[in-house]
Structure formats: structure tokens, C-alpha cells
Amino acid sequence: MKFTAKISRNLRDTNTGAPKVLLRGIMTEEDEFRDHAWVELNRELDKVLKHNKEFKRKQGNGSAIIEFEADVKNYEYRGSVYKQTLNNIKTVRILGKA
Hints:
Layout: E1 2-12, E2 20-27, E3 32-40, H1 43-51, E4 63-77, E5 81-97
Antiparallel strand pairs: 1-2, 1-4, 2-3, 4-5
């Protein structure tokens, strides 16, 4: 499934085996998927963060709008609420500055 989202250098769990990056304003081709989601920082997303000039600025962490393909994953939150997140993110392309 295709998505667009804003990405910046907002990271967590960087000292673990599964660091995550925050995606905001995640949209499908038709509708909003989620207002935000922490997703695994894979090679494709790391490459975007390392090569986008917006993230190399000294003021702030910059942000960009990206387009990508991902699988939707359902998970249980606090025992009774079911939510969705994204995994297997691939084919990441920078669309522009956020």
C-alpha cells in the first residue's frame, strides 16, 4: 500500500536493536491513515535521514515529506484497543520539504 508522511530526525530507542523514527500525518491515497506512528528505522528510512540536506541543517532537525510503500500491521494496545501501524517500509522517495 502507498503512503505519504512527514519525517524528521525524531528518533527513539536508538540504543536498542530496533530504533524507531516518528512519521507524522500519514496519508493513504484517499484518506488519513494515522496522525503519527513510531516505525522501525530500517535501511531505506535511514538513507533518507542521512542524505536529505534538510536534516543536515544546524538549526532544528528539518523535516521532509516522503512517499513510500508499507504493510499495515494490526496490534493490541493496552489489552482491549486495536490499532494499526506500518512495517516493511520500502521504496522511499523524498517529495519535498515539509
